[in-house]
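Appendix B, Record 12. Input sequence as logged:
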Amino acid sequence: MRSTHRAAGVTAAVRRPAAAAALVVVVAAGLAVARGLASSPVTDIAGDALYAVAAYTGLVLLLPRAPRFALALAAAGWCVAVELLQLTGLPAALAERVPLVALLLGTGFDARDLVVYVFAVVAAAVLDRAVSARLLPGGRARADVGRPG
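Logged structural output:
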């Protein structure tokens, strides 16, 4: 039992700082895409992918011991819920009053975004597993995350 707690502690101690660093990079890239590049289908897809990766990475930061599948499901669920919320017009109305809301909730529904979110979250989870395998002692990418060690 003690080794399980120690392994979970190592997992959190390694994954949390890595997730924090990754989240800073992803948010900076997202802001650069949203504010620094001309609007196009490519920048829209890139922004959506970065949003989904930020959602996944934020969950890793908050819950570093949670199973990747659960984190991916929650991140994709959040992204889909936000996209569906856009059908109500509420995010667009809020963004008119508080422009930063547009970065968090978007403003207009696009079905393509749903596909981008799923692929981006899957890519983030796969990358998370690969990074964890390199950073965790003994390359334990799976055993320490969400499972007894």
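The mean pLDDT is 88.
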